[in-house]
Amino acid sequence: MSAEAAVDVELKDVRRAFGATQALRGVSLAVHAGEVYGLVGPDGAGKTTSIRLMAGLLLPDAGQVRTLSEDPAAPRSHVRESLGLVPQRNTLYGDLSVEENLRFFARLFALSKEDFAERRARLLDITRLGRFTDRRADALSGGMYKKLALACALLHRPRVLLLDEPTNGVDPVSRRELWELLYGLVHEGMTLIVSTPYMDEAARCHRVGLLYAGELIAQGAPRELTRAHGVAASDFEAVFLALVEKHTGGRAA
Amino acid sequence: MHPLLVQYRAVVVKEVRQTVRDRRVMALLTIAPLVQLFVLGFAVNFDVRHVPTVVVDQDRTVESRDYARAQLAGDTLDLKAELRDEHAAEEALEDGRASVALVLPRDFQKDVLRGQGAQVQALVDGSDPTRSGVASDAVARFAALRATQLLQAQARAQGTSVPRAPVALVPRVLYNPELSTSVYVVPGIAAMLLLIVTTVIMAMGLSRERETGTLEQLQVTPLRPGILMAGKVTPFLVIGLVDVGLALSVGAWVFGVPLRGSLVLVAVATLFYLLSTLGVGLLIATVSRTQQQAFVGGFLFVLPAVLLSGVMSPIRAMPDWLAVVTYVNPVRYYVEVLRGSLLKDAGLPDLWRQLVMLAAFGTVVMSVAARRFHKTSA
Question: A with B: how many residue pairs have Cβ under 8 Å apart?
């Protein structure tokens, strides 16, 4: 990724608490256009909070969040027209069919009939959901549901796509398919920010930010991080554990 | 089509699909109000008839027997037993076998014939004020009538005439000449059911979106909160109007509620009323995190709104400080429009204040709900 690429998403010293729990403690990061950025960390590290802040679903207690150079939480923000979100939870309408969900979200983005027909055909093709258009969303398998959520988030050709643990609860075959799909999107010029608790998925990203207890403890290309720690490129877990141990002085081991 | 209209239509279509597919919600919106109207229309009945009565005839003469028989001839009082003394009558009132006891004293006939003013005692169980009030009135009315008849008979026997009373009351009951409770109560029940159904369904519907996360998904689209709210409210406005139509039909056919006034006026009032009830539902949803909270919140509003509306008891019977609260209760105004228009053929010149209040309440509550929704969804 070239250093000159525009910054699509930026967090500057962002803090956010939920009651007494500090979810983010001064996180700063920048994601460049066309990049696959992985937010990697265990449960409770602050991944979902970061994604929700980037999407404008949360306001920071302190610091600044910019998505496509705008405050994503501003009431009249235009970011939403260029942003896609695949949340961790199943947040589509389970009592509507695949077709009805696609049509509903296409209308919210005011897609023309022709545009919708073209996008629908393409997305059903790449997600292989074409045979299930009449099936209710809540009757889909975990993997198919994620693909539908992805298709709904991609209908309007977003510039930035946020994915919160998209492979959580998905079988290995569907996981691989999902990642292939995501790479395809990057080739089209989209910026992807993916949160994941799986260390093996970190290696699939251009760059990763390692989150631990609300802090960004390391950032960089996966290969650089593994090389710096003298481990095999596939052993990203060893890097993460070493960084956590260094950060906590061995208390978290 | 303008993008906002496209979004609005999308939300309306989604809401209709989800509502129609959810059989429980459909039943709650259509069948339940009709069944409840039917049942409550019969159950809520202030007509007092067939009050169980015991008679203690201590005189046992032709005159005393005639008096008791004539008193019990109508359908207000029903003879349950003839008892030997006043003590037995009190026992019957105490254990609930009777609500009224008529005690005709010894020498009743003698006093009547001598014109000395025989005294009949009526013991009435006052634990149910409505019932005892009507029974007391029936007994007093009959005593006055009987006294006049006896005076006329005595005058005829003496060849004289009874002087006419200087003032005579000629009551004529308008709008509900048979004084049927149903005619008065059914419009109130329709308003009450509409309130319960629309407020609770609306509050729970939006809370469900919040609880399941679909609301969050909508928040990352360009859909504006105002359009979302308008789209969510529209199907329920239509369903509410249909509900009122069905309720008025059942009221007319089953309970004989007249449809004297303008149905257009009723429809406009219903629309304003639904804006208020649905607005309150949305407002409740903005302060509820779960559907359960929304359900409880809905009932916390509905119960006082019904009790302070005049549906069940007249507002003028409330203490002044409580009656003031009814001025900010949309149910009050809607019930006034329904009763005024349906029963009295009251038109816009009579009911414009109620329409203005309903419109004002609907607008204010919708605006507050929209503002809160903006705030809580950011």
Answer: 65
Element (H, E) at A200: helix A199-202
ipTM value of the model? 0.86
Q: Which residues contact B318 (CB under 8 A, 6 or more apart)?
A: B308, B326
pLDDT tens for A175-219 read 888 888 888 888 888 999 999 888 888 888 999 999 999 999 989
Closest chain B C-alpha to A141 CA, distance in angstroms: 18
Rounded Cα gap, residues A180 and A201, in angstroms = 12
A7-89+159-248 architecture in CATH? 3-Layer(aba) Sandwich (3.40)
For residue B210, give the chain A residue with the closest CA: A91
Rounded distance between C-alpha atoms, residue A143 and residue B170, angstroms? 82
Closest Cα in chain B to A74? B378
pTM of the model: 0.77
CATH of domain B51-158: 3.40.1710.10
Q: Are strands A7-18 and A62-67 parallel, antiparallel or unpaired?
A: antiparallel
Q: What is the pLDDT of residues A47-99, one digit of tens each?
A: 999 999 999 999 999 999 999 999 998 877 888 899 999 998 888 999 999 99
Is B78 in a helix, a strand, or coil? Answer: strand
Best of A107, A152, A157, A159 to mutate (most B CBs within 10 Å, chain B): A107
Instruction: Give the 3-state secondary structure of A14-51.
Output: EEEEECCEEEEEEEEEEEECCCEEEEECCCCCCHHHHH
Q: Give A105's contacts in chain B (Cβ within 8 Å).
A: 221
* Cβ count within 10 A of residue B191: 31
